[in-house]
Write a structure and sequence with these properties.
The complex is a heterodimer of chains A (112) and B (114). Helices cover 0% and strands 54% of the residues of chain A. Chain A contains no helices and eleven strands. In chain A, a hairpin with a 6-residue loop joins strand 4 and strand 5. Chain B is 0% helix and 49% strand. In chain B, the strands form two sheets. In chain B, strands 2, 4, 5, 6, 9, 10 and 11 form a seven-stranded mixed sheet that branches. Chain B is built from no helices and eleven strands. Chain B is mostly beta strands and 114 residues long. The chains are: A mainly beta (112), B mainly beta (114). The interface between A and B is medium-sized, with 22 and 27 residues.
Chain lengths: 112, 114
């Protein structure tokens, strides 16, 4: 069956450290994968998109990798801050038609 | 604010009642999507429109759910004869068809069915 899975347990880290979140998928061959941030009671906010021919993409303190052989994407936040505390969702669009399939999200908590 | 807006933000209803939610997308966006999200889960796709045409519906969208986008601008999602299992956050998103990879989400409507 087709699945997209993220770390189900919340991730607690100290301010200044690097947070690494994992997204694994099975039985999909996506052309691209996206990461969103969601704060409690709010809608998801788009962060980064990485295509199948890109190994890595960066935006300020964010870095995403995409390994189509392992069927895995890693999302890194360097020099993390308490303001980075949120739930992070990965999503893919299997048919490139705009219908997004989301993982269940990983809750990140950054302690001062 | 030129983002996606949704109304109401919260709705409490009794089982069996009908509810209707509204979504106003970003004005130039011709694609509009509805998702449902329950606690601890990611959003699940329900349906999407390109202009006024409804192009795809999920199997999650039972006969009690209907969505419209009559003039290709705002959209409504109606749930008839609500059930407790319909309690969730209903999210709307919009995008340009030409750059549909990036969807912009509204704040959601949180529904509680008692």
């Amino acid at each position: 069956s087709q699945k997209i899975e993220q770390n189900s347990e919340a991730l607690n880290i100290q301010e200044g450290k690097t947070a690494t979140l994992t997204c694994n998928y099975t039985n999909y061959s996506p052309a691209y994968l996206q990461w969103y941030r969601q704060d409690p009671g709010r809608g998801p906010v788009f962060l980064l998109l990485i295509r199948e021919n890109e190994k890595e993409k960066r935006k300020e303190r964010l870095k995403v990798t995409f390994d189509t052989t392992l069927k895995q994407s890693l999302f890194h936040i360097t020099a993390s801050q308490p303001a980075d505390s949120a739930t992070y969702l990965c999503a893919l669009d299997p048919n490139q038609g705009g219908k997004l399939i989301f993982g269940q999200g990983t809750e990140l908590s950054v302690k001062p | 604010d030129t983002g996606v807006s949704q109304d109401p933000r919260h709705k409490i209803t009794k089982r069996g009642q009908n509810v209707t939610f509204r979504c106003d997308p970003i004005s130039e966006h011709n694609r509009l999507y509805w998702y449902r999200q329950t606690l601890g889960q990611g959003p699940e796709f329900l349906t999407y429109f390109q202009n006024e045409a409804q192009l795809e519906k999920s199997r999650l969208l039972s006969d009690r759910f209907s969505a419209e986008r009559p003039k290709g601008s705002f959209s409504t999602l109606e749930i008839q004869r609500t059930e407790q299992g319909d309690s969730a956050m209903y999210l709307c998103a919009s995008s340009l068809a030409a750059s549909r990879e990036t969807q912009y989400f509204g704040p959601g409507t949180r529904l509680l069915v008692l």
